[in-house]
Amino acid sequence: MSPSSADLLARANAASAGGNWSQVLDCLQQLLARDDEAPGDRHGGTTAAIALQLTLDSLANGDFRQRWEATKLLPYFGEAAIAPLLVWIGDRAVDGELRWFAVRAATDLLRHPVSSQTRTTTIAALANLLAAEEDDDLRDAATSALAELGEGAIDILAELMQEPQSRRLAVRAIAQIQHPRVVEPLLAAIADPDVEVRAIAWEAAIALDDPRLPSLLLKALDDPSARVRRQGAIGLGLWAARGSLDDRLPECDLVRRLRDRLWDLNLEVCQQAAIALGRLDSPAAAAALSELFAAETTPMPLKLAAVRALGWMSVPEAVDALQGAIQLCCRGGNEGEKLPAAFAAEIAAVLGRQSESPLRERAAEVLVALLDADPRTRPESAEVKKAIVLGLGELGDSRAIEPSIRLLADPDASVRLHAIAALKRLDPERTYQRLQERAADPTIAPDLREGIAIALQEWHR
C-alpha cells in the first residue's frame, strides 16, 4: 500500500531535520505527483506551504544536483514560490550558486500564469542584477533570463542601456529578443561609442528588415572595429540575397565599398566582403573578386571564399574570372610557382556546379580546354584532373567525351576510375559507341587500349 500524503510529508520533515536532502526531495516528488492531491492545495493550504518550505530548504542547503532537482519541483507551487526566490536574488550575503539557481527558477516560473505585479517585480529584480551586481556569472544569468522573457523586458532593458555599467549586458539581452519593438533600441546602440556595444547591436540588427539599415551598413564597413566591419559586410550580403538593395544603394558605390574591404587587415572581414560581392551577382562584383587571384599577398582562405562567391553568380564574367584563376594555378603565379592543387580542384568543382544553361556551356568549354591544353599548362595533379573530369560529368557536355577518354590512359588509377564515371554521364549511347571505335583502332597506345577495355567492362555495371 502506498504511503499517504501525511506520511510522505512526515518523512520529508524527518529527513530535513537530519539534513538528508535527497530523501526530502524523493518524498516531495512522490507527494506532488499524487493524483489524489487536490490541485488547489498545491498552490495554497497547509500541505502546500510545508512542501514549498521543504523544497526551498533543499534548494538552500543541498548540493548542486539536489538544487537542480529542487528547482524542478517549484512549478508545482506556482506564483507562491517566486517571492522567496526574489529575496535570495537580491541578497548579496547568499552564496552565488544559490542566487544563480534562484534566477533560473524565477525565470522558469514566469512561463506560468502569474499576476502582472509579480511579473513586474521579478523583471525589476533581474534588471537590478545587471545594474548593480558584481558577480559576472549572476549578471550573465540575469541577461539570459531577461532575453527569455521577451517583450515584457524590452522597456526596462532600454532603460538599462542608458547606464554605462549595464549597457553591454542590456544590449546583449535585447539583441536576443525577436520583437518589432527592439528595432529602435538596437538602431540607437549601433552608434554607441563603446565598441562592444556596437558589435553586439550589429550582430542582431543585420537581421532587421528596416529601410534605414542599408545606408547604416555601408557606414559600418568603415568602423574602427573589425567585428562591426564584418557585420556590415554580412548585412549587405543578406540584403543583396533578398534582392532588397536595388533601389536603396547605387551598385557602383556598393561594389566599390565592398571591394575596399577585400583588402581589410582582418581576414574574416575580407571573406564576408567576398561573400557579399558574390550575392550582388553583377559583372562589376565579379571583376572585384577576380583581382584577388593575381595578388601574391592574398591568403588562400580568401581566394577560396572568392571562388565560392563567383560560383553563386549567374553572370558570364564570373565564369571568366574562374577560368583566369584556374589557368593561373596551372601555369604558375606571378613568380612562376604553381598554386596548391586543392585550390585548382575547388575551382574545377565550382565550375562543374554551374546551373544556368549558358554558363554550363561556358564552364564545360573552360574545363575541356584545360585537358586539351599544351603540356606545359595542362594540369599535372591527379586531384585536379579528378575534379575536372567530375565537373565535366556534372555538366554533361558531349565535348568532354574525347578528353575524358584520353584520361583512361592516366597513370593514376583513381583518375581513370573518375574518367569512367564521368563518361557514363556524357551521352551514354554516343560515348559507348566511341569507346568501341577507339578500342578497334590498332594505332592507339597500349595504356589507352587497356583503359578503354576496363571502361567497356565496367560500362553496364
From TrEMBL:
The lineage of its organism: Bacteria, Bacillati, Cyanobacteriota, Cyanophyceae, Oscillatoriophycideae. The keyword NADP does not apply. It comes from the Bacteria. It holds the Pfam family HEAT_PBS. The keyword Transport does not apply. Keywords: Antenna complex, Phycobilisome. It comes from Oxynema aestuarii AP17. One of its GO terms (cellular component) is phycobilisome. GO terms for molecular function: oxidoreductase activity. This is HEAT repeat domain-containing protein.
